[in-house]
Structure formats: C-alpha cells, structure tokens
Prior knowledge:
The chain has helices spanning 15-26, 79-85; strands spanning 7-11, 31-35, 38-42, 52-58, 70-73, 91-98, 104-109, 115-120. It is α/β, with parallel strands linked by helices. A four-stranded mixed sheet has the order 1-4-3-2, covered by helices on one side. It has a four-stranded mixed sheet with strand order 5-8-7-6, covered by helices on one side.
Amino acid sequence: MKNAINWFEIPVKNFDKAKKFYETILGAGMQPMEMPGMRSAFFPADLQNGIGGCITQANGYEPSKAGSLVYLNGGDDLSVMLARVEKAGGKILLPKTAIGKNGFMAHFEDTEGNKVAFHSMK
C-alpha cells in the first residue's frame, strides 16, 4: 500500500458557494460532476500518482467541524492560500503554526462550516 488515504470528500450544502470558495483559496479551478442525487467538484490532483478528493453535495453529507480533518496541500508556503481564506468567506481557526521538521500547518473553517487544514514545508 503506497498511501493509507486515496480519496476524500468534503460535504457541502451550498455547492456553488463552496466551489467558489475552494477555487478562490487554491487559485485553481475544480472540475464539476453531477450524478443522480449528487453534485461533486474535484480538487486538482494527479490521480495516477497521488491522492484526490472533492466537495460533495448529496443527502447524508453534512458539513462539520468535528470528526476527520483533511489537510490540503498548501503549496510552497501555505501563507499564500491562508491569506485568501477570510477574503473568500471562511474563517482562520489556527494560524500558520510550525510543526518542526514536518513544516507548517493551519486550520480554517470553510463557508459550509467544515474544519479543514493546510500543510506546507515553508
């Protein structure tokens, strides 16, 4: 097994608002996909060699600050993306914090009420 995780889904209620939020903070587009009873938009990912994920709106998908915490790739320096969070309608919960030789992390709340995080080495 290469990675313990291979896919994640972040639940949303307001799909269009959440998609715009994540596109804004990541500075990248998200590919939407609709199936009966479900709307998703995919984060940029190399699915052949890495881990992917999406935002998903469907019955039974409830945004939450409790439970699992997903760390998004913060790029070279997560400060760049973190600076976009509040401008895009989110809230910073934990500012950029050093975690020793493992780099830096920060936690934020998205427009849907999910607690999500960034990680970077700088």
